[in-house]
Amino acid sequence: MDKKVLDHDVPTEEPVTFHFLAKFYPENAEEELVQEITQHLFFLQVKKQILDEKIYCPPEASVLLASYAVQAKYGDYDPNVHKRGFLAQEELLPKRVINLYQMTPEMWEERITAWYAEHRGRARDEAEMEYLKIAQDLEMYGVNYFAIRNKKGTELLLGVDALGLHIYDPDNRLTPKISFPWNEIRNISYSDKEFTIKPLDKKIDVFKFNSSKLRVNKLILQLCIGNHDLFMRRRKADSLEVQQMKAQAREEKARKQMERQRLAREKQMREEAERKRDELERRLMQLKEEATMANEALMRSEETADLLAEKAQITEEEAKLLAQKAAEAEQEMQRIKATAIRTEEEKRLMEQKVLEAEMLALKMAEESERRAKEADQLKQDLQEARESERRAKQKLLEITSKSSYTQSMNSSTTALPTDLPSFNLISESLSFDFKDTDMKRLSMEIEKEKVEYMEKSKHLQEQLNELKTEIEALKLKERETALDILHNENGSRGNSKHNTIKKLTLQSTKSRVAFFEEL
């Protein structure tokens, strides 16, 4: 740390690009990454290594990791904000995964967004931690590979990670052939290009291998010493400084959780107030529409009443006119009867005319009577129309009184959001004096979260299998890489990173050393 940066072996050309990266990977990111900034930087490092394909990630897990990365960057999913195409410029999946399937960017975005929507309520640090929990179970996570040769000159790969030393076939970086956990190794040293590892059991012979360069030996030794030291330190009680850091981190996490809950409550109350306001505005609009319809009905009633009154007047006049004509016909009939008819022909003609006049008079009387009845009916309709007009006016008066009451309610409710900050008094009066009992309670809550996470992992695996089955039909088999094939074979056998290492370490150290030398 006392050496100047430019005194190290760095390129001389300008500009010089430096990458600030973690050298030693944690076994359990959730337990070991205490500070939020450390977690964030490590998340960015692991994400870049997965996208650059330095860490192999199967397609279905890549989609899930992408959804957590989107949650960390964009926050909760909102369909009104995060519309189709909002991930078009984002680099979320390894190119190998994209090329392996006959799927458009829109199809990938649809699948990522479907899982992104399920992460609602997770803060940035929580989404990043979920990303790291999944990434740390990938086979190549945290493994540094080096080309080596054993005594027979067989070319192999040495993998150094947080759990120990692993020997790989050069064509298979996923599944180690032999593993030596750090607690079985007593001493590591090198001379020139030859590396010597002494097992903890002194009865077992040391085993040796050769690296390609002396410089590589220095790096291997540094990684071994650092990982071995961290491996042993993790299995001891935390130092006072680490305990204090973890306690502070728990307090900070609890404070943030309470703050998030307070904000969530305020947001919920705001949304509830807005919903009530919208409901009142909708009700007000409905009342306005009802008032408008009542006004229109009143106007139609008034127009109908005027038309009926006019029609009744016309019918009455027609009835009077018909009555007058009937009277004239009666007079004409009397006049004809009074006239002397000299000849029989004239008498017959007169009788016929009298008969016609009588029939006409009868028809006039019937028509006059019908017109009179029609006039009475129209008067009755006019009376009913006026009664309807009176009821419409009464209903309009009722609606107007309701509308004024609703407006007063609306003004009082709309003012509600401005009073919401008063809830800050509650949170401001809270004390963050965490006692031992509080720490125990927080520890219990954290343990409970772990148990819940383990329960969710089964559901998560089912989701991954479902996505894998869904996109399997779109896979281009000819584009599968060697790592894809190896991963599928491991999956069909039920092998994972941890159970493979566990099986290998069940063998005796002596047999593993002998096996390494016979490779």
Automatic annotation (TrEMBL):
Keywords from the UniProt entry: Cell membrane, Coiled coil, Membrane
Domain FERM: 1-235
Topology with respect to the bilayer: Peripheral membrane protein
One Gene Ontology CC term in the entry: plasma membrane
Cell compartment(s), UniProt: Cell membrane
A family per Pfam: ERM_helical
SMART domains linked: B41, FERM_C
Start and end residues of each stretch annotated as Disordered: 257-277, 371-390
Name recorded for this polypeptide: Neurofibromin 2
Source organism: Amazona collaria
